[in-house]
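Problem 12. The chain below contains 518 residues. Write out its predicted structure in token notation.
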Amino acid sequence: MALSDTQTGRAPEVTSGAPPVLRLRGVTKWFPGVQALRRVDFDLRPGEVHVLFGENGAGKSTLINIVAGALRPDAGEVELRGRPVQFRSVHDARLRGISAVFQEFSLVPGLTVEENLFLGAEPTTGALINKPEMRRRAEEALRRLGFPILPRMRVNRLSRAEQQMVEIAKAFRTNLSILILDEPTAALTDRETDRLFQLVLDSKRQGVGIIYITHRMNELHRIGDRVTVLRDGGRVDTLAVRDATPEKLVELMTGRKIEAFFPRIDHRPGEELFAVEHLTAGTLVHDVSLTVRAGEIVGLAGLVGSGKSEVGRACFGLEPIRGGTVRLLGRSVGKPTPGAMLGAGLAYVPPDRRTEGLVMERSVRENIALSALPSAHFSGRVLLRRRSERAICLRLAQQLRLVPTGIERPVALFSGGNQQKVVLAKGLTRNPRVFVMDEPTTGVDVAAKTEVYTFMKDLVEREGAGILLISSDLPEILHLAHRAYVMHRGRLRAELGRAELTEQAVLSHFFETTTTHG
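Solution.
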């Protein structure tokens, strides 16, 4: 009996249409002590979106870095338009029509938007940079893409979403034949995402082949044509998107069936742990009131820019409070600060773990212990209690199934999902009763999401904690929250109980123009 392509490890051959614009044959890549890719086959056709899917650490980033010219394979071949090629650099790949938008931005913060767009390819007049021409081209590119950004703005003054737009504009500036998009919608609003997807469809019509990495199932089905699943550095399967059900993808990614993607979480609400009354904060939040009880997950939903994240930041002392009160464990908090809130029993999980949650160059142990160093478990009168510190950090790493469990490794060497586990472990060092989790599964793979959800279930059911879950991922709100508040333009539009918590009900309040309190 003949073996299938999946069993042999070969990618399915292109049997119809145009030949592949890109083909990888047996590509292998080693890093010190780690084999990142194992004889991977992959092809990309003109005018298709080929989705790369897999757990954090499966090899997706290594593969696209090879295609983009940032890395060279240790074995195997890369063919571009049917001819073997070896990219000397990212610049070399870009000259051949390959542009990438990576998850980690490659912008120079101190330069302007226009200077970043044309960095290394500035228009010149003689020996001088032609700045008026550069600005004209930048304005034209941003206008064509529909991005409302001024070319003269410095990048370090832009929001993360605006920086993402600049990265996308850089990729579209050149004549494309291959476009690589790595989690491009993570920082974008729904409207900006719609615009990006329109650009992707326009590029497909022009014959551009697109490699797309996402952890979001709805994006895969919205714009994808084929999907290749990687696991432990190897290609598991390539299939048409129409055949890629969530259950099938999870099984291919993890090698096991996950019966329940969202766990069932018992709702046994106890005493009030946390309350916000008539909160007005920052420049966006107005008159917000909500409560969180022991033993429950309370959702805070809304579009990007609705003010939901600002509520969490204000409660932790990261946004100035201009009115209202915050009450934690029955006591009013006059002016929240991160140190005071941690000490009083509230842990905050920020949406951007790399810039707000972790010190990437330091070890897992140092990151976990950082927020609790003044406590007696970690510090004596003069010196740190190293033995106690290591024991506590190792226990928390094992509790959250950190892989690998080496707590002395720099946190930058871990996958996104495992970095998020370190952020969660960091919050546990103070034994908090309340967790404010803002986008806790951003940029983590499907399998890591299930582990985060299980962690939340344990906190609520076993520890009696209360969780305020701030999320733009509507399925998270619908499946995990026992009740939810919906925000729109800085104000609460509704409170929905478990029986009322449906997709239609939540979406109707996303765009509500009149105030409705449920």
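Discussion. The two ends are 63 Å apart (CA to CA). Students who got a different answer should revisit the alignment rule from Section 12.3.
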